[in-house]
Design goal:
Length: 69
Amino acid sequence: MKLALTEENPLVKTYEVNEWARLIDCELPSNVSLQLLESLHEHWTYLLKNLTAIQFKRISILTVVKCEH
């Protein structure tokens, strides 16, 4: 969302979920991820509730591109 609010033509890149799942941080307890999600949700909620109409339109135009390897 912040890319759409701060860049003219934001590009959101996909990622390899299976590769990310193999990274060392997957060994952390699940409550660590839940705390992260809770904080992220709080930030997004505050941001979304305070967007202007023009800003809200900007976040609806994000382009997602699948990167091929």
